Amino acid sequence: MLVNVERRAEKPYKRGMSAAPVPERSTEPVVRLEGVRKSFGDNLVLDGIDLDVSAGQVLTVIGRSGSGKSTLLRCVNLLEPVDSGRVFLEGEEITRKGADRNAIRQRIGIVFQQFNLFPHLKVIDNLTLAARRVSHMPRKEANARAVELLERVGLPEKAKSYPHQLSGGQQQRVAIARALMMRPHVMLFDEVTSALDPELVGEVLIVMRDLARDGMTMLVVTHEMQFAREVGDWLVFMDGGRIVEQGKPERVLSDPKEEGTRRFLRRTLTLAHSLEELESVEELTIDEEEGGTE
Ligand SMILES: Nc1ncnc2c1ncn2[C@@H]1O[C@H](COP(=O)(O)OP(=O)(O)O)[C@@H](O)[C@H]1O
Ligand SMILES: [Mg+2]
Fold this sequence. Notes:
- The protein has 294 residues and is an alpha/beta fold.
- Helix content is 38%, strand content 20%.
- The chain contains eleven helices and ten strands.
- The protein has a six-stranded mixed sheet, with helices on both faces.
- α5 (139-152) crosses α6 (168-180) and α6 runs parallel beside α7.
- The longest helix has 16 residues, at 198-213.
- The site of magnesium ion has 4 residues, from α2.
């Protein structure tokens, strides 16, 4: 599914790699993966992933269903242990034995396809719960931060609403605000617009674009090629647990060098054009799996 971010925003926004205004921070990548391998049983899901995300960079990951994208993010967030290889966060190896996983996770925000909001809690309480319980942030401070973040995602008037009173796009914006509560140093997004009706995709992408503009370091798994092109600094194409091709989004999308990338893009773009009414990328994914591309 293609969404024209440009059409919805006043102006297209281009982030040059050199434009990232982070002079004081070290040149250490915020996230680094070295030779990460991961299997489930005898299913090799990540087959030696090397990846760097530097401060202020937006790295987008594309690839067909089952290629290991979600597992990659889950390994960065320590939701899955790696079998071998190492993951670093701001220079510190977080896959080492004895690493403080809770402290590490506070520096990493993650947003999933499903919003996972607590249905019985008001929006504001969804935002403050973990901050108060896990980080013992005083209620007043947590509330102030939550209000500020709801404003940032364009939902200041929804603080007292319950999740079911919001649209999917609004719920996903709340989920993004919630992930920002702990002032993460990097944000991971796993196909966060894939479950949304097409007309709600843009509002979420705009929140993400603005976050990128503000200098957030982001690792974004997406099917939104327009977003990857306009907001991403670097694009990685994954297939079968490997990085098959990577480069500037513009280059990879318009001039893919690898046959696998070409095939994936051809299929994705053809489907997006021919099935404009397609309600969810889920269907697209199923179709791709059933049809096969070999
Ligand atoms: N918790 C798990 N247990 C067993 N297999 C898994 C688990 N998570 C993912 N897989 C398998 O790993 C492969 C990659 O999955 P995933 O990382 O979700 O890919 P993607 O996000 O690119 O669709 C798939 O074959 C999937 O079935
Ligand atoms: Mg996935």
